[in-house]
Backbone:
């Protein structure tokens, strides 16, 4: 079974530029997550989709971050304009469970963003 | 809000020594708890999970964790460390109710030296 795919693995941009990350979850997984992992910290949930609808985006900085999951499969996370503090690894995860599940998430390898 | 606290951002052990990584949770009801491992430049991989069945949970690579409600703890242990265990370990909690998601602790970096 193929895992969660993410691209690009690495991206270096200057502040105020834009960047987009792509994620393809495990086939059949209804729930997709984007987490932000700043160096030395644990992953923080940015946005959660169930199928193609958003169920939690309470910690997404909506003035600069946006995400979509058209057709309920793959997803794109965009940052525009980027700030220095956006330097982090962006992890995509998916789960076959929606509500009431035990919580197991499957993670991709992440996209490392460096903002100069 | 439910959360987890990992005591010790860095732990260093000798090869063959006991590994003990600490995690405490805050929750008014028994939560679902997880340990994930992250190797350099990789994503997170599930080590084990507690879902209110047996309080002693066995995971992959010889790791286990014990859920102790009286101490609100879910510490991760391994009897004998191996060099390949060097990685970052994250404790996580699934908040009760609502949609399925995980809240992570800050992580503990484990170093294993010869």
Residues:
């Amino acid at each position: 079974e193929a895992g969660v795919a993410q691209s690009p693995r690495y991206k270096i941009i200057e502040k105020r530029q834009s960047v987009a990350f792509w994620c393809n979850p495990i086939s059949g997984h209804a729930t997709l997550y984007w987490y932000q992992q700043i160096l030395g910290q644990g992953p923080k949930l940015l946005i959660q989709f169930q199928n193609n609808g958003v169920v939690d985006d309470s910690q997404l900085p909506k003035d600069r971050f946006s995400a979509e999951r058209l057709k309920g499969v793959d997803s794109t996370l965009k940052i525009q304009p980027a700030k220095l503090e956006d330097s982090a690894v962006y992890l995509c995860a998916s789960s076959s469970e929606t509500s009431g599940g035990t919580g197991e998430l499957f993670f991709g390898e992440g996209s490392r963003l460096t903002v100069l | 809000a439910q959360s987890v606290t990992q005591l010790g951002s860095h732990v260093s052990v000798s090869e063959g020594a006991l590994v003990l990584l600490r995690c405490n949770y805050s929750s008014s009801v028994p939560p679902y708890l997880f340990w994930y491992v992250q190797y350099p430049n990789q994503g997170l991989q599930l080590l084990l999970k507690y879902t209110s069945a047996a309080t002693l949970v066995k995971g992959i690579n010889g790791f286990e964790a014990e859920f102790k409600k009286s101490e609100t703890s879910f510490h991760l242990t391994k009897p004998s460390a191996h060099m390949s265990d060097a990685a970052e370990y994250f404790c996580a909690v699934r908040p009760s109710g609502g949609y399925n998601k995980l809240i992570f602790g800050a992580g503990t970096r484990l170093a294993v030296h010869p």
